[in-house]
Amino acid sequence: MTYCLGMLLESGLILMADTRTNAGVDNFSTFRKLHVLADGPDRQIYAATAGSLSVSQSVISSLQEDQLASETREHGRSLSEAPTMFRVAQLVGEAVERVGATVGAALERSHIDASTELLVGGRIGDGPLKLYLVYSIGNFIECTPDVPFLQIGETKYGRPILDRALRYETPLAPAVKMGCLSFDSTMKSNLGVAMPIDLLVLPADRAQPGISRRIERGDRYFEALADRWAELIYEAATGLPSPPWMDD
Amino acid sequence: MTYCLGMLLESGLILMADTRTNAGVDNFSTFRKLHVLADGPDRQIYAATAGSLSVSQSVISSLQEDQLASETREHGRSLSEAPTMFRVAQLVGEAVERVGATVGAALERSHIDASTELLVGGRIGDGPLKLYLVYSIGNFIECTPDVPFLQIGETKYGRPILDRALRYETPLAPAVKMGCLSFDSTMKSNLGVAMPIDLLVLPADRAQPGISRRIERGDRYFEALADRWAELIYEAATGLPSPPWMDD
User: Fold this and answer.
1) Which Gene3D superfamilies match (chains A, B) (predicted)?
2) N or C: at which end does chain B have fewer Cβ atoms within 10 angstroms?
């Protein structure tokens, strides 16, 4: 299992991904699922992946190879040449389709789930920050301010806190905190999602530096946050009134 | 979709079920999913159902018919004769198997999901309160104090609050409140779960009366609870400190 969260806010773009992979319950490992697809002066493009690790790694590698190829001979299919983030999402979708037709088809013949989903976010040139969710068959949706986040993988446990507390206007630092709370809820309920958590922050304000950070198991901030959150939820839940039609 | 929650606590048994059913998104309706299978002086047996409505209704009806039949000629397959709740769970599992072999098989030939799950709870004679989750193929698990609740249907959104705040020692009235919070989180994130909510409470103390109640849309207690809970979560989330390695 996996949990990846992308937030597209007035203040910037945030991507978070856990690092646990497992084949069954007896084969756990740690893999990076948050990837840098481009990080140059004119474009910053990131992707987080969920689903079959062999499929998603092939998608990421094929995108990276297309970029290398474009520097020598091929044209028009490289992220380094894409004029907009919309075109980037199309290229990622095409890569998902290509890998699905080869690796994915082979896996499905062995009745192994080959589905994969990606969050793709970033910025090209003077364009705005964008965030897309690319589905298993290559189609995609774009994040909009009404619901300023997209999730892939184990999405449900960590959603209520986002529905309740995250707004398009939330500044970056508190939004990262809410992302941490969303991951905490998910990890409490599903062992297939686990620390460390990779984090990327790209501020809308180009004068502000971006942040790339791995939140490790035992991170002091994360642990204190999770403990205090558990206390607050418990206090809030126990402090609310019981139904008036029941005896206490 | 559906959400049903059973809690087996030191203080008693609680069953809650929403009433929304849908075939696709354009055919919504309201059906009772919390059923009384026996309510006599020596046995109180309740079931909540999730999954294919035609399958779960057939399971409930066949259990009720078996009871009628037992009063005339058949023996050993009726809930009214079951000596223990374990035997009740077996009989429910057998009914699920029988219906799955007929109605379920027909549905699956048309590629319609025929799976169904049930929460079965209650008490027979001087025996203890019990709660079981009966799966789609008729096998079942029993609720134990380590995790004093079982869920079926849309289980994930409403689970974090239970993991954090519900204990085996929680008294009945606050436990019903936490059940309401769990339903509120689920309904906020999935339109396929909706009011009214049916509620059954069977206190462990036989001197206390049971409660059977439908919490209607617009219920004043439920609405005030949901509003206050949203405020508390928002306040708690916004009040916690942001990461120290980010500028506020």
Assistant:
1) Glutamine Phosphoribosylpyrophosphate, subunit 1, domain 1
2) C
